[in-house]
Amino acid sequence: MLPIVLSFDVEEHDRIEAAVHLNVDAILKRTYADRMEMATRRLLDQLAAADNTPATFYVVGEIAATHPKLVRDIAAAGHEVGSHSHTHLRVHRFSPDTFREDLKRSVDTLEQAAGVKVRGFRAPTFSLMKETAWAVDELLRVGLSYDTSIFPVRHDRYGVPSAPRGPFYLEGTAGRILELPPLTLRRLGQNLPVAGGGYFRLFPLWFMKAGLADMPNGLGMLYFHPWEFDPGQPKLPLGRLSQLRTYVGIGKSEQRLGNLLTAYRGRFRRAADVADELATAALPSFRLR
Length: 289
Ligand SMILES: [Zn+2]
Known about the structure:
The structure is a single chain. By secondary structure, the chain is of the alpha/beta class. It has one domain (4-287): Glycoside hydrolase/deacetylase (TIM Barrel, Alpha-Beta Barrel). The chain is built from 10 helices and 11 strands. It has helices at residues 26-49, 61-66, 68-76, 96-114, 135-142, 198-201, 206-214, 240-247, 253-263, 271-277; strands spanning 4-10, 56-59, 80-83, 120-121, 146-147, 168-171, 176-179, 185-187, 190-192, 220-224, 285-287. The strands form 3 sheets. The chain has a 5-stranded mixed β-sheet with strand order 4-5-7-6-11, sandwiched between helices. Strands 3-2-1-10 form a 4-stranded parallel β-sheet. It is globular and about 50 Å long. The two termini are 33 Å apart. The mean pLDDT is 95. Residues 9, 11, 84, 88, 124 line the site of zinc ion.
C-alpha cells in the first residue's frame, strides 16, 4: 500500500521566500516565533488525537537553538526531526563549503535538542535544482540518509520537471542519496505540485487525493508549514499575488488535515521509516546535471 508522509517545514512565518525583501521589525518577529511554536504544538495535538499518527518535521536549525524544548517535544511524541537548513537561505546563496557548514550546524543543533539522529534534509523553497547540483555531494559528506528537496514540477521559483515522480537515487560525484520527492499529479503531460502549499489551501482537497490515487507504486510525500494552520496571525505586507498565494484557505487547513488523517488512517509513515523500507528496493537513478 502506498505510504503517505505528512511533513511539516517548521519555520517562522516571516522566513517565507515571498518575504525575504521585507524588513520585519523585532516585535513582529517575536510574534511570529511565538505563533510558530503555538501552531506547531496544535499540530502535535491534532496528530496525537488521530491515533498518534506519525509525521516528519523538518526544522530550521536556528529554531532548535531558540526553541529546544519544542524540538525535544516533537521527537518525544514519536515524530521524526529532519533538517530544514540552519538559516533557511536558498541553496543558491551558498558555496559548497558554506552550505556544508550551515547544514552541519543545523544537524548538530537539532540532534542536541531532539536527542536523536537527524537523517533527512529538505532545502528551503525546494532549492536543490540543476544550478545547485553540487549540493548533492555535501549532503553525502554530512552523512544524511535521504533528501526530500527535489520537486519534479515546473515553477517560477523551484523545480526539476525532468526528475522522477517516485523515490529515486540522486547521483552526485561522490556517491548517491535516496530522494523522496513531494507528490505530483500527472495531467495533460504536466506534473502538478499537489503535495501542499497553495494546492492544499487554494484548490479542493480532491487535487491532493487524486495525486494520492495516481501513484500506486510511489510515495505520497505531502508538505505543510505550521503558519498555514494559523488564521489569526498578523499578515505580512506582501504584494497582491503573494498575499493571495500566502493566505488563501488558511482558515480551512486544520479541518482539511483532519479529513486526510481520517481518510488515510493507518497509511502514514515517517520519511526515515520509508527510507529504511526502500533500502533494498530497485529504484531509478537520476543526475541533476
Ligand atoms: Zn521553508
